[in-house]
Protein backbone atom coordinates (compact mmCIF):
# COMPACT_ATOMS: atom_id res chain seq x y z
CA UNK A 1 0.00 0.00 0.00
CA UNK A 2 1.25 3.46 -0.89
CA UNK A 3 1.39 6.35 1.57
CA UNK A 4 -1.60 8.66 1.20
CA UNK A 5 -0.38 11.02 3.97
CA UNK A 6 3.12 11.71 5.27
CA UNK A 7 3.79 14.11 8.13
CA UNK A 8 7.54 14.71 8.31
CA UNK A 9 9.38 16.16 11.32
CA UNK A 10 6.34 18.09 12.62
CA UNK A 11 7.04 20.48 15.50
CA UNK A 12 4.26 22.47 17.19
CA UNK A 13 4.79 24.68 20.26
CA UNK A 14 2.51 26.42 22.74
CA UNK A 15 3.47 28.74 25.62
CA UNK A 16 5.60 26.72 28.01
CA UNK A 17 5.39 23.42 26.12
CA UNK A 18 6.49 21.65 22.93
CA UNK A 19 3.32 19.70 22.07
CA UNK A 20 4.86 17.94 19.02
CA UNK A 21 8.64 17.53 18.90
CA UNK A 22 9.95 16.37 15.49
CA UNK A 23 7.21 13.77 14.82
CA UNK A 24 6.97 11.73 11.62
CA UNK A 25 3.83 9.76 10.70
CA UNK A 26 2.88 7.74 7.61
CA UNK A 27 -0.68 6.68 6.67
CA UNK A 28 -1.29 4.14 3.91
CA UNK A 29 -4.33 3.95 1.64
CA UNK A 30 -7.06 1.70 3.08
CA UNK A 31 -5.30 1.51 6.45
CA UNK A 32 -6.66 2.02 9.97
CA UNK A 33 -3.74 3.64 11.78
CA UNK A 34 -4.06 4.15 15.55
CA UNK A 35 -2.35 7.03 17.35
CA UNK A 36 -1.64 6.11 20.96
CA UNK A 37 -0.22 8.10 23.86
CA UNK A 38 -0.76 9.40 27.38
CA UNK A 39 -2.97 12.41 28.10
CA UNK A 40 -1.10 15.43 26.81
CA UNK A 41 1.25 13.36 24.62
CA UNK A 42 0.41 15.52 21.59
CA UNK A 43 -1.94 13.22 19.65
CA UNK A 44 -4.83 15.68 19.17
CA UNK A 45 -2.38 18.50 18.44
CA UNK A 46 -0.74 16.47 15.66
CA UNK A 47 -4.10 15.70 14.08
CA UNK A 48 -5.17 19.33 14.46
CA UNK A 49 -2.09 20.27 12.43
CA UNK A 50 -3.15 17.81 9.72
CA UNK A 51 -6.69 19.21 9.75
CA UNK A 52 -5.53 22.83 9.61
CA UNK A 53 -6.63 23.94 13.07
CA UNK A 54 -2.98 24.61 14.00
CA UNK A 55 0.01 25.58 11.89
CA UNK A 56 3.26 23.76 12.62
CA UNK A 57 6.46 25.72 13.31
CA UNK A 58 8.59 23.08 11.54
CA UNK A 59 8.00 20.13 9.24
CA UNK A 60 6.02 19.34 6.11
CA UNK A 61 2.92 17.40 5.01
CA UNK A 62 2.65 15.33 1.84
CA UNK A 63 -0.46 13.88 0.24
CA UNK A 64 0.07 11.10 -2.31
CA UNK A 65 3.73 12.09 -2.41
CA UNK A 66 3.14 15.77 -3.17
CA UNK A 67 3.90 18.59 -0.75
CA UNK A 68 0.73 20.38 0.44
CA UNK A 69 0.05 23.45 2.57
CA UNK A 70 -2.87 23.27 5.02
CA UNK A 71 -3.68 26.66 6.51
CA UNK A 72 -7.20 25.94 7.77
CA UNK A 73 -9.92 23.22 7.78
CA UNK A 74 -11.21 24.41 4.40
CA UNK A 75 -7.83 23.48 2.88
CA UNK A 76 -8.03 20.11 4.63
CA UNK A 77 -11.53 19.44 3.28
CA UNK A 78 -10.38 20.38 -0.22
CA UNK A 79 -7.66 17.74 0.14
CA UNK A 80 -10.26 15.17 1.29
CA UNK A 81 -9.28 15.25 4.97
CA UNK A 82 -12.09 15.20 7.57
CA UNK A 83 -12.06 15.05 11.37
CA UNK A 84 -14.44 13.98 14.13
CA UNK A 85 -13.30 15.91 17.20
CA UNK A 86 -13.30 14.58 20.75
CA UNK A 87 -15.73 17.34 21.70
CA UNK A 88 -18.16 17.53 18.81
CA UNK A 89 -18.35 20.70 16.70
CA UNK A 90 -22.13 20.88 16.32
CA UNK A 91 -24.67 23.68 16.67
CA UNK A 92 -27.21 22.51 19.26
CA UNK A 93 -30.24 24.41 17.94
CA UNK A 94 -29.64 23.42 14.30
CA UNK A 95 -31.13 20.24 12.85
CA UNK A 96 -29.05 17.23 11.84
CA UNK A 97 -29.14 18.11 8.12
CA UNK A 98 -28.35 21.79 8.83
CA UNK A 99 -25.26 20.76 10.82
CA UNK A 100 -24.08 18.33 8.13
CA UNK A 101 -24.33 20.87 5.31
CA UNK A 102 -22.93 23.79 7.37
CA UNK A 103 -19.86 25.09 5.53
CA UNK A 104 -20.63 22.92 2.48
CA UNK A 105 -24.00 24.38 1.59
CA UNK A 106 -25.86 23.11 -1.46
CA UNK A 107 -27.19 26.00 -3.55
CA UNK A 108 -29.77 26.03 -6.32
CA UNK A 109 -29.87 29.28 -8.30
CA UNK A 110 -28.23 31.03 -5.39
CA UNK A 111 -30.76 29.72 -2.86
CA UNK A 112 -30.02 27.19 -0.12
CA UNK A 113 -31.20 23.78 -1.37
CA UNK A 114 -31.93 21.95 1.86
CA UNK A 115 -34.02 19.25 0.18
CA UNK A 116 -31.09 18.10 -2.01
CA UNK A 117 -28.80 18.09 1.03
CA UNK A 118 -31.39 16.11 2.99
CA UNK A 119 -31.64 13.55 0.18
CA UNK A 120 -27.86 13.11 0.07
CA UNK A 121 -27.72 12.75 3.86
CA UNK A 122 -30.38 10.01 3.78
CA UNK A 123 -28.55 8.18 0.97
CA UNK A 124 -25.28 8.27 2.93
CA UNK A 125 -27.10 7.26 6.10
CA UNK A 126 -28.58 4.20 4.41
CA UNK A 127 -25.40 3.24 2.56
CA UNK A 128 -23.20 3.26 5.67
CA UNK A 129 -25.75 2.11 8.26
CA UNK A 130 -25.65 5.46 10.06
CA UNK A 131 -29.32 5.84 10.88
CA UNK A 132 -30.26 9.43 11.78
CA UNK A 133 -33.36 11.61 11.83
CA UNK A 134 -32.35 14.50 9.55
CA UNK A 135 -34.95 16.91 10.92
CA UNK A 136 -34.37 16.61 14.68
CA UNK A 137 -32.31 19.21 16.54
CA UNK A 138 -28.88 18.24 17.88
CA UNK A 139 -29.87 19.21 21.44
CA UNK A 140 -32.55 16.49 21.39
CA UNK A 141 -30.41 13.49 20.36
CA UNK A 142 -27.99 11.23 22.24
CA UNK A 143 -24.22 11.57 22.21
CA UNK A 144 -23.91 8.43 20.09
CA UNK A 145 -26.29 9.90 17.52
CA UNK A 146 -24.32 13.16 17.50
CA UNK A 147 -21.22 11.20 16.58
CA UNK A 148 -23.06 9.71 13.61
CA UNK A 149 -23.81 13.25 12.51
CA UNK A 150 -20.10 14.12 12.72
CA UNK A 151 -19.22 11.08 10.60
CA UNK A 152 -21.89 11.98 8.04
CA UNK A 153 -20.39 15.49 7.87
CA UNK A 154 -17.14 13.93 6.61
CA UNK A 155 -18.92 11.66 4.15
CA UNK A 156 -21.06 14.56 2.89
CA UNK A 157 -17.82 16.35 1.92
CA UNK A 158 -16.46 13.22 0.18
CA UNK A 159 -13.50 12.99 2.56
CA UNK A 160 -11.18 10.04 1.92
CA UNK A 161 -8.88 10.55 4.92
CA UNK A 162 -10.88 10.30 8.15
CA UNK A 163 -9.53 11.40 11.53
CA UNK A 164 -11.30 10.12 14.66
CA UNK A 165 -10.20 11.85 17.89
CA UNK A 166 -11.16 9.66 20.89
CA UNK A 167 -14.31 8.49 19.05
CA UNK A 168 -15.39 5.97 21.68
CA UNK A 169 -14.89 8.12 24.80
CA UNK A 170 -18.60 8.97 25.06
CA UNK A 171 -20.15 5.82 23.54
CA UNK A 172 -21.87 2.80 25.05
CA UNK A 173 -20.33 -0.67 24.49
CA UNK A 174 -22.94 -1.39 21.81
CA UNK A 175 -22.21 1.90 20.02
CA UNK A 176 -18.47 1.17 20.18
CA UNK A 177 -18.96 -2.20 18.46
CA UNK A 178 -21.08 -0.46 15.82
CA UNK A 179 -18.42 2.20 15.23
CA UNK A 180 -15.68 -0.43 14.88
CA UNK A 181 -17.76 -2.11 12.16
CA UNK A 182 -18.27 1.22 10.37
CA UNK A 183 -14.52 1.92 10.44
CA UNK A 184 -13.73 -1.51 8.97
CA UNK A 185 -16.26 -0.82 6.21
CA UNK A 186 -14.59 2.50 5.41
CA UNK A 187 -11.17 0.82 5.17
CA UNK A 188 -12.52 -1.84 2.78
CA UNK A 189 -13.79 0.95 0.54
CA UNK A 190 -10.27 2.36 0.38
CA UNK A 191 -10.68 5.21 2.85
CA UNK A 192 -7.74 5.81 5.20
CA UNK A 193 -8.36 6.27 8.92
CA UNK A 194 -6.33 7.89 11.69
CA UNK A 195 -7.74 6.75 15.01
CA UNK A 196 -6.75 8.48 18.29
CA UNK A 197 -7.55 6.40 21.35
CA UNK A 198 -6.39 5.36 24.81
CA UNK A 199 -8.16 2.00 24.68
CA UNK A 200 -5.79 -0.83 23.90
CA UNK A 201 -8.59 -3.36 23.34
CA UNK A 202 -9.99 -1.22 20.53
CA UNK A 203 -6.57 -0.84 18.89
CA UNK A 204 -6.03 -4.59 18.99
CA UNK A 205 -9.53 -5.18 17.56
CA UNK A 206 -9.64 -2.73 14.65
CA UNK A 207 -6.25 -1.14 13.81
CA UNK A 208 -3.68 -2.31 11.26
CA UNK A 209 -0.79 -0.32 12.73
CA UNK A 210 -0.12 1.99 15.64
CA UNK A 211 2.15 4.99 16.22
CA UNK A 212 2.99 5.76 19.87
CA UNK A 213 3.78 9.24 21.23
CA UNK A 214 5.12 10.08 24.69
CA UNK A 215 5.44 13.61 26.08
CA UNK A 216 5.30 15.10 22.61
CA UNK A 217 7.96 12.81 21.11
CA UNK A 218 7.76 9.93 18.63
CA UNK A 219 8.35 6.55 20.30
CA UNK A 220 7.73 4.13 17.44
CA UNK A 221 5.31 2.52 14.98
CA UNK A 222 4.30 -1.15 15.20
CA UNK A 223 2.10 -3.54 13.24
CA UNK A 224 -0.78 -4.73 15.41
CA UNK A 225 -0.43 -8.35 14.33
CA UNK A 226 3.12 -8.32 15.70
CA UNK A 227 2.51 -6.73 19.13
CA UNK A 228 0.57 -7.11 22.39
CA UNK A 229 -1.39 -4.86 24.76
CA UNK A 230 1.42 -5.11 27.28
CA UNK A 231 4.02 -3.94 24.75
CA UNK A 232 1.84 -1.02 23.61
CA UNK A 233 1.23 0.12 27.20
CA UNK A 234 4.96 -0.11 27.91
CA UNK A 235 5.72 2.06 24.87
CA UNK A 236 3.04 4.55 25.90
CA UNK A 237 3.89 5.13 29.59
CA UNK A 238 7.45 3.82 29.76
CA UNK A 239 6.71 1.10 32.31
CA UNK A 240 4.59 -2.01 32.85
CA UNK A 241 0.92 -1.33 33.66
CA UNK A 242 -1.33 -3.51 35.83
CA UNK A 243 -4.42 -4.59 33.89
CA UNK A 244 -5.93 -6.57 36.78
CA UNK A 245 -6.96 -4.73 39.95
CA UNK A 246 -5.89 -6.16 43.28
CA UNK A 247 -8.61 -5.43 45.84
CA UNK A 248 -8.33 -5.83 49.58
CA UNK A 249 -11.06 -7.58 51.54
CA UNK A 250 -14.00 -5.32 52.31
CA UNK A 251 -14.56 -3.81 55.73
CA UNK A 252 -18.22 -2.79 55.52
CA UNK A 253 -19.44 -0.09 57.88
CA UNK A 254 -22.65 1.85 58.42
CA UNK A 255 -24.80 3.29 55.66
CA UNK A 256 -23.51 6.57 54.18
CA UNK A 257 -26.07 7.09 51.40
CA UNK A 258 -29.68 5.96 51.60
CA UNK A 259 -31.96 6.61 48.63
CA UNK A 260 -35.67 5.91 49.11
CA UNK A 261 -38.35 5.83 46.39
CA UNK A 262 -36.49 8.45 44.35
CA UNK A 263 -38.34 9.71 41.28
CA UNK A 264 -37.07 12.19 38.68
CA UNK A 265 -39.15 13.57 35.77
CA UNK A 266 -37.93 13.41 32.19
CA UNK A 267 -36.98 16.64 30.44
CA UNK A 268 -38.12 15.29 27.06
CA UNK A 269 -41.34 13.40 27.75
CA UNK A 270 -44.21 13.03 30.20
CA UNK A 271 -42.73 9.76 31.41
CA UNK A 272 -40.43 9.77 34.45
CA UNK A 273 -36.70 9.38 33.76
CA UNK A 274 -36.26 7.63 37.15
CA UNK A 275 -39.01 5.81 39.02
CA UNK A 276 -39.02 4.75 42.70
CA UNK A 277 -35.31 3.96 42.96
CA UNK A 278 -34.16 2.75 46.39
CA UNK A 279 -30.74 1.51 47.51
CA UNK A 280 -27.94 2.09 50.03
CA UNK A 281 -24.20 2.70 49.84
CA UNK A 282 -22.22 1.72 52.93
CA UNK A 283 -18.78 2.63 54.18
CA UNK A 284 -16.04 0.55 52.60
CA UNK A 285 -17.83 -0.41 49.40
CA UNK A 286 -18.02 0.58 45.76
CA UNK A 287 -21.55 0.38 44.38
CA UNK A 288 -21.79 0.70 40.61
CA UNK A 289 -24.86 1.96 38.79
CA UNK A 290 -24.59 0.21 35.43
CA UNK A 291 -26.76 0.54 32.36
CA UNK A 292 -26.87 1.50 28.72
CA UNK A 293 -26.78 5.26 28.26
CA UNK A 294 -30.21 6.88 28.28
CA UNK A 295 -31.79 4.67 30.94
CA UNK A 296 -32.00 7.28 33.68
CA UNK A 297 -28.51 7.22 35.19
CA UNK A 298 -27.70 10.80 34.16
CA UNK A 299 -30.99 12.21 35.48
CA UNK A 300 -30.64 10.26 38.73
CA UNK A 301 -27.13 11.58 39.42
CA UNK A 302 -28.06 15.14 38.47
CA UNK A 303 -31.02 15.09 40.86
CA UNK A 304 -28.94 13.44 43.59
CA UNK A 305 -26.25 16.14 43.32
CA UNK A 306 -28.61 19.11 43.02
CA UNK A 307 -28.47 19.79 39.28
CA UNK A 308 -32.08 18.63 38.75
CA UNK A 309 -35.18 18.37 40.93
CA UNK A 310 -36.74 15.12 42.02
CA UNK A 311 -40.53 14.90 42.39
CA UNK A 312 -40.65 12.19 45.03
CA UNK A 313 -38.44 10.35 47.50
CA UNK A 314 -35.73 11.17 49.99
CA UNK A 315 -31.94 11.02 50.18
CA UNK A 316 -30.02 10.58 53.44
CA UNK A 317 -26.29 11.37 53.57
CA UNK A 318 -24.50 10.32 56.76
CA UNK A 319 -27.86 10.28 58.56
CA UNK A 320 -29.00 13.74 57.36
CA UNK A 321 -31.94 14.06 54.99
CA UNK A 322 -30.54 16.21 52.19
CA UNK A 323 -33.46 16.31 49.77
CA UNK A 324 -34.20 17.85 52.40
CA UNK A 325 -36.25 18.60 55.57
CA UNK A 326 -35.27 21.20 58.14
CA UNK A 327 -36.92 22.90 61.05
CA UNK A 328 -37.88 26.55 60.57
CA UNK A 329 -34.94 27.59 62.76
CA UNK A 330 -32.51 25.50 60.69
CA UNK A 331 -34.05 26.93 57.55
CA UNK A 332 -33.39 30.47 58.74
CA UNK A 333 -29.80 29.60 59.61
CA UNK A 334 -29.22 28.05 56.18
CA UNK A 335 -30.61 31.20 54.55
CA UNK A 336 -32.17 29.01 51.90
CA UNK A 337 -35.89 29.75 52.23
CA UNK A 338 -37.79 29.73 49.00
CA UNK A 339 -41.00 27.96 49.94
CA UNK A 340 -42.13 26.23 53.10
CA UNK A 341 -44.62 23.39 53.42
CA UNK A 342 -45.63 22.52 57.00
CA UNK A 343 -46.09 18.81 56.53
CA UNK A 344 -45.22 17.78 60.10
CA UNK A 345 -42.81 18.80 62.83
CA UNK A 346 -40.27 19.20 60.02
CA UNK A 347 -40.41 21.72 57.20
CA UNK A 348 -39.82 20.76 53.59
CA UNK A 349 -37.38 23.09 51.87
CA UNK A 350 -36.78 24.02 48.26
CA UNK A 351 -33.35 25.57 47.93
CA UNK A 352 -33.13 28.92 46.18
CA UNK A 353 -30.62 27.76 43.59
CA UNK A 354 -28.46 24.90 42.42
CA UNK A 355 -25.29 26.44 43.88
CA UNK A 356 -26.66 26.34 47.44
CA UNK A 357 -27.89 22.79 46.94
CA UNK A 358 -24.50 21.61 45.65
CA UNK A 359 -22.58 23.44 48.39
CA UNK A 360 -24.89 22.04 51.09
CA UNK A 361 -24.31 18.49 49.88
CA UNK A 362 -20.59 19.05 49.41
CA UNK A 363 -20.19 20.35 52.95
CA UNK A 364 -22.08 17.32 54.26
CA UNK A 365 -19.51 14.98 52.72
CA UNK A 366 -20.45 14.51 49.05
CA UNK A 367 -18.06 14.92 46.11
CA UNK A 368 -19.09 14.59 42.49
CA UNK A 369 -17.05 13.75 39.38
CA UNK A 370 -19.60 14.75 36.70
CA UNK A 371 -20.39 13.01 33.44
CA UNK A 372 -19.80 16.09 31.28
CA UNK A 373 -16.58 17.79 32.34
CA UNK A 374 -17.25 20.89 30.23
CA UNK A 375 -20.85 21.53 31.27
CA UNK A 376 -20.72 20.60 34.94
CA UNK A 377 -17.08 20.12 35.93
CA UNK A 378 -15.02 23.08 34.79
CA UNK A 379 -15.07 26.76 33.88
CA UNK A 380 -12.94 26.51 30.77
CA UNK A 381 -11.75 30.11 30.69
CA UNK A 382 -10.63 30.02 34.34
CA UNK A 383 -7.10 28.97 35.27
CA UNK A 384 -6.23 25.48 36.45
CA UNK A 385 -5.77 26.84 39.99
CA UNK A 386 -9.16 28.56 40.07
CA UNK A 387 -10.86 25.37 38.88
CA UNK A 388 -9.18 23.42 41.68
CA UNK A 389 -10.98 25.56 44.31
CA UNK A 390 -14.35 26.16 42.63
CA UNK A 391 -16.26 24.72 45.59
CA UNK A 392 -13.82 25.58 48.40
CA UNK A 393 -12.55 29.11 47.65
CA UNK A 394 -14.68 30.43 50.54
CA UNK A 395 -12.89 28.22 53.09
CA UNK A 396 -10.60 29.90 55.61
CA UNK A 397 -7.37 28.53 54.14
CA UNK A 398 -8.08 30.33 50.87
CA UNK A 399 -9.28 33.62 52.39
CA UNK A 400 -7.37 36.75 53.40
CA UNK A 401 -9.56 39.41 55.08
CA UNK A 402 -12.48 38.63 52.79
CA UNK A 403 -10.39 38.34 49.62
CA UNK A 404 -9.15 35.19 47.93
CA UNK A 405 -5.59 34.37 48.98
CA UNK A 406 -4.08 33.70 45.56
CA UNK A 407 -0.80 32.34 46.94
CA UNK A 408 -2.66 29.75 49.02
CA UNK A 409 -4.75 28.79 45.97
CA UNK A 410 -1.69 28.41 43.73
CA UNK A 411 0.24 26.43 46.37
CA UNK A 412 -2.73 24.09 46.77
CA UNK A 413 -3.10 23.69 43.00
CA UNK A 414 0.64 23.03 42.54
CA UNK A 415 0.48 20.25 45.12
CA UNK A 416 -2.46 18.58 43.33
CA UNK A 417 -0.82 19.01 39.92
CA UNK A 418 2.18 17.04 41.17
CA UNK A 419 0.16 14.45 43.09
CA UNK A 420 -2.22 13.64 40.21
CA UNK A 421 0.29 14.19 37.38
CA UNK A 422 -1.79 16.92 35.71
CA UNK A 423 0.12 18.12 32.63
CA UNK A 424 -0.19 21.71 31.48
CA UNK A 425 1.97 24.19 29.65
CA UNK A 426 2.04 26.93 32.31
CA UNK A 427 1.29 25.10 35.55
CA UNK A 428 -1.35 26.61 37.85
CA UNK A 429 -2.02 29.62 35.64
CA UNK A 430 -2.80 27.55 32.52
CA UNK A 431 -6.28 28.25 31.09
CA UNK A 432 -8.14 24.94 31.38
CA UNK A 433 -9.56 25.36 27.87
CA UNK A 434 -6.04 24.92 26.43
CA UNK A 435 -5.44 21.57 28.16
CA UNK A 436 -6.07 18.11 26.72
CA UNK A 437 -9.36 16.41 27.55
CA UNK A 438 -7.65 13.79 29.69
CA UNK A 439 -5.81 16.38 31.77
CA UNK A 440 -9.03 18.37 32.19
CA UNK A 441 -10.53 15.18 33.62
CA UNK A 442 -7.57 14.84 36.01
CA UNK A 443 -8.24 18.37 37.33
CA UNK A 444 -11.78 17.37 38.32
CA UNK A 445 -10.70 14.06 39.83
CA UNK A 446 -7.92 15.72 41.85
CA UNK A 447 -10.32 18.40 43.15
CA UNK A 448 -13.07 15.97 44.16
CA UNK A 449 -10.94 13.23 45.70
CA UNK A 450 -8.77 15.72 47.62
CA UNK A 451 -11.86 17.04 49.44
CA UNK A 452 -11.76 13.69 51.29
CA UNK A 453 -15.53 13.12 50.99
CA UNK A 454 -17.60 10.62 52.94
CA UNK A 455 -19.35 9.77 49.64
CA UNK A 456 -17.65 10.01 46.24
CA UNK A 457 -19.99 9.99 43.26
CA UNK A 458 -17.86 9.13 40.24
CA UNK A 459 -19.56 9.28 36.84
CA UNK A 460 -17.37 7.95 34.04
CA UNK A 461 -14.25 8.88 36.06
CA UNK A 462 -11.78 7.42 33.55
CA UNK A 463 -13.45 8.70 30.37
CA UNK A 464 -10.72 9.89 28.00
CA UNK A 465 -7.83 8.78 30.24
CA UNK A 466 -4.82 6.68 29.20
CA UNK A 467 -4.05 3.31 30.80
CA UNK A 468 -1.50 4.78 33.20
CA UNK A 469 -3.95 7.43 34.42
CA UNK A 470 -6.75 4.86 34.65
CA UNK A 471 -4.54 2.67 36.82
CA UNK A 472 -3.83 5.62 39.13
CA UNK A 473 -7.52 6.69 39.37
CA UNK A 474 -8.66 3.14 40.10
CA UNK A 475 -6.08 2.85 42.89
CA UNK A 476 -7.21 6.24 44.27
CA UNK A 477 -10.85 5.09 44.33
CA UNK A 478 -9.89 1.80 45.99
CA UNK A 479 -7.83 3.72 48.56
CA UNK A 480 -10.89 5.84 49.43
CA UNK A 481 -12.96 2.68 49.77
CA UNK A 482 -10.36 1.03 52.03
CA UNK A 483 -10.31 4.18 54.20
CA UNK A 484 -13.99 3.67 54.93
CA UNK A 485 -15.52 5.99 52.36
CA UNK A 486 -18.53 5.13 50.24
CA UNK A 487 -18.26 5.17 46.43
CA UNK A 488 -21.15 5.42 43.99
CA UNK A 489 -19.71 4.66 40.55
CA UNK A 490 -21.52 5.16 37.24
CA UNK A 491 -19.71 3.63 34.29
CA UNK A 492 -20.38 2.38 30.77
CA UNK A 493 -17.05 0.51 30.69
CA UNK A 494 -17.95 -3.12 31.43
CA UNK A 495 -14.37 -4.03 32.38
CA UNK A 496 -14.34 -1.14 34.87
CA UNK A 497 -17.73 -2.18 36.25
CA UNK A 498 -16.65 -5.78 36.78
CA UNK A 499 -13.17 -5.05 38.17
CA UNK A 500 -13.86 -2.07 40.43
CA UNK A 501 -17.33 -2.75 41.87
CA UNK A 502 -18.27 -4.57 45.06
CA UNK A 503 -21.95 -4.46 44.13
CA UNK A 504 -23.61 -3.73 40.77
CA UNK A 505 -27.04 -2.14 40.45
CA UNK A 506 -28.40 -2.36 36.91
CA UNK A 507 -30.68 0.46 35.78
CA UNK A 508 -33.06 -0.09 32.88
CA UNK A 509 -35.70 2.43 31.80
CA UNK A 510 -35.29 4.38 35.03
CA UNK A 511 -35.66 1.41 37.39
CA UNK A 512 -33.22 -0.84 39.26
CA UNK A 513 -33.78 -4.24 37.63
CA UNK A 514 -30.96 -6.23 39.29
CA UNK A 515 -28.45 -6.21 42.11
CA UNK A 516 -25.42 -8.35 41.22
CA UNK A 517 -22.22 -9.53 42.85
CA UNK A 518 -19.39 -9.12 40.27
CA UNK A 519 -17.72 -12.23 41.70
CA UNK A 520 -20.75 -14.35 40.84
CA UNK A 521 -21.83 -12.92 37.48
CA UNK A 522 -20.47 -12.60 33.95
CA UNK A 523 -20.24 -9.78 31.45
CA UNK A 524 -22.80 -11.63 29.32
CA UNK A 525 -25.33 -11.83 32.17
CA UNK A 526 -24.73 -8.19 33.03
CA UNK A 527 -25.34 -7.29 29.39
CA UNK A 528 -28.70 -9.09 29.41
CA UNK A 529 -29.88 -7.08 32.41
CA UNK A 530 -28.63 -3.85 30.85
CA UNK A 531 -30.50 -4.58 27.63
CA UNK A 532 -33.72 -5.35 29.50
CA UNK A 533 -33.74 -8.99 28.40
CA UNK A 534 -33.59 -10.20 31.99
CA UNK A 535 -35.09 -8.86 35.21
CA UNK A 536 -34.36 -9.87 38.77
CA UNK A 537 -36.99 -9.95 41.49
CA UNK A 538 -35.66 -7.58 44.16
CA UNK A 539 -36.81 -7.32 47.74
CA UNK A 540 -37.74 -3.89 49.03
Key attributes of the depicted protein:
6-stranded mixed beta sheet, Rossmann fold, 3 domains, alpha/beta, 540 residues
Give the SSE map.
Blueprint: E1 3-14, E2 17-28, E3 32-37, H1 43-51, E4 58-63, E5 66-68, H2 73-78, E6 81-84, H3 96-101, E7 107-108, E8 111-112, H4 114-128, H5 143-156, E9 161-165, H6 173-188, E10 192-197, H7 200-206, E11 209-214, E12 217-223, H8 229-237, E13 255-265, E14 272-282, E15 285-290, H9 297-304, E16 312-317, E17 320-321, E18 325-326, H10 328-334, E19 340-342, E20 347-349, H11 354-363, E21 366-369, H12 373-377, H13 384-388, E22 399-400, E23 403-404, H14 406-419, H15 437-450, E24 455-459, H16 467-482, E25 486-491, H17 494-500, E26 503-508, E27 511-516, H18 523-530
Parallel strand pairs: 3-10, 3-11, 6-9, 9-10, 15-25, 15-26, 21-24, 24-25
Antiparallel strand pairs: 1-2, 1-4, 4-5, 7-8, 11-12, 13-14, 13-16, 16-17, 18-20, 19-20, 22-23, 26-27
Structural features, described:
By secondary structure, this protein is an alpha/beta fold. The protein folds into three domains: 3-237, 3-Layer(aba) Sandwich (Rossmann fold), CATH 3.40.50; 253-322 and 453-540, Rossmann fold (3-Layer(aba) Sandwich), CATH 3.40.50.300; 372-452, no CATH class. 33% of the residues lie in helices and 27% in strands. It contains 18 helices and 27 strands. The strands form seven sheets. The protein has a six-stranded mixed beta sheet with strand order 6-9-10-3-11-12, sandwiched between helices. Strands 21-24-25-15-26-27 form a six-stranded mixed beta sheet. A four-stranded antiparallel beta sheet has the order 2-1-4-5, covered by helices on one side. The termini are far apart. Residues 324-328 and 334-354 have low confidence and may be disordered.
